[in-house]
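Quick one from the shared queue. A colleague (R.T.) flagged L-allo-threonine aldolase as missing a structural entry in our internal table.

Convert sequence to structure tokens.
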Amino acid sequence: MTVPELADKQTTNGLDHPKSNGVRSNSWQQPGTSAADFRSDTVTTPTHAMLQSVQNVLLDDAWNEGGMTAFERHLAQITGREAALFALSGVMGNQLAFRSHLTRHPMAVLCDKRSHALLFEAGGIASLTGALVQSVMPRNGLYLTLEDIKENVVLEERGDVFHCPTRLIHLENPLGGVTMPLDEVRRICQFARQHGIKVHIDGARLWESVAAGHCTLPEICAEADSVTMCFTKGLGAPVGSILVGSDDFIVHSKWIMKSIGGHVRQPGIVTCMAWAALDEAFGRDPNGSEAVLLRKSHENARRIAEVWEELGGQLVLPAQTNHVWVDLSAAGISPQEWVKQGEEWGLRLRGPRMIVHYQITDEALDRMTGFLRHILSDSRRHANGRIKNSQDFRNMYSSY
Ligand SMILES: *Cc1c(COP(=O)(O)O)cnc(C)c1O
């Protein structure tokens, strides 16, 4: 097996990294450590535009609270909501929403069993709100439907003191790269409104759903009581998330944020980078028409998924946005072996989930194709036969 060397000069997908004459290059001028890193879309490096924005803020006004306020106004405007709150992380955005919405015991949060808020937020729902979690595995294996909700919700109006009433429905969109159809979100939110139940949407990667044409920002943000979105995933910023909702809700959330130390003294230095990242990867159009970089990364993800399937591999989830979930057990390869072999091909991998962000280079994509071909043409694995059962979601997610 021969592995091609990564060339010195790399090209990115649509991003302009100016080469400087005679100046030592760094990862801000050309693809850096993220060029062949498929582990996550959080591994991207800040771009030239982001760093330039910091320089401008520092020259202008290091305190620059005004910069954050303007950014929040911009987010409220493109999502069509009254107010927005900049939070240091997506976890903080979600947890502020839970804490702010959930004020009357007994109370329960109904959510997908695979939710980030349930699995990867250090049990914040329990410790910060004291709510019970009612977790549900969607019957279609992809996203929650109103039928799943109706089957598991506990309505307060039943007046049955034995049960814990659902006071908040928590949706994650997209989840594992799979988007919820807007119609389903609408059905669930309408049901929730009829029964006095709040809805929070964890839209850490909502930009991706919008870029892929599944909905517009205002369409989906109009449905829920609150929505969180991250700048640190596909958009590539180093810090920050946004929480949007009504004026009252945001005022309350701000109070909670202060009480847990989330208030930032000089926010301009981080919000400027988040704004530059948003403009660069998503653009200013709430319909996502300017999200060229995101759409390119979706195309690349789809291409990887197609190659895998053409070679006889199976997918665990459809590649609708920037995630590609490959069924490693069906291919007869352990996650450890997958990662190790990937390294030999100069690819950074982590379990069955690959994320294709916009800083992945064309060269890395070529390597990926070669790698997949190598993996699936291994005669030992064919001899072992393919295991038909897909891994359990919980196991898959444990390799995040
Ligand atoms: C990344 C992510 C978050 C936020 O996590 P952070 O660790 O704060 O970045 C929340 N929800 C989902 C679905 C995510 O992918």
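The chain has a mean pLDDT of 89.
The two ends are 29 Å apart (CA to CA).
Added to the table.
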